[in-house]
């Protein structure tokens, strides 16, 4: 159950958000070989002026600064190479969907087996 969460300033073209999230979910699904309906993505809009890069704030998403901040959470156990390819795939999909030409920050976070609950079940990594 990979989860992508994006936080960003208001977009100049908000219709790109849904497209970008859909492309990112598909890229994650393809990269991990998991069912698309098991990939979750959320978007959180930051208030204008609430994102500072150095001393500069912006009211809307720029193309050369204040990149969307993206966190991808996945179960533990992936190789470094798989994490690299996954980060690249997510970055490309979001860049294409948003039209931001790589102005993104994407980080990968491992969820340890047994360290999450979904509904009433502790989520554990399936045995290979």
Secondary structure tally, helices: 2
Kindly report the CATH topology: Macrophage Migration Inhibitory Factor
- The count of domains is 1
Which sequence of SSEs, written as H and E, runs from N to C? EHEEEEHEEE
- Secondary structure: number of strands: 8
Separation of termini? Answer: 16 Å
Please supply descriptive tags for the structure shown above:
two-stranded antiparallel sheet, 2 helices, elongated, alpha/beta, 128 residues, Macrophage Migration Inhibitory Factor, single chain
Question: How does this structure look, described?
Answer:
- The protein has two helices and eight strands, in the order βαββββαβββ.
- With 128 residues, the chain is α/β, with parallel strands linked by helices.
- The chain has one domain: Macrophage Migration Inhibitory Factor, CATH 3.30.429.
- The strands form three sheets. It has a four-stranded mixed beta sheet with strand order 2-1-5-6, with helices on one face. The chain has a two-stranded antiparallel sheet with strand order 3-4.
- A hairpin with a 2-residue loop joins β7 and β8.
- The mean pLDDT is 93.
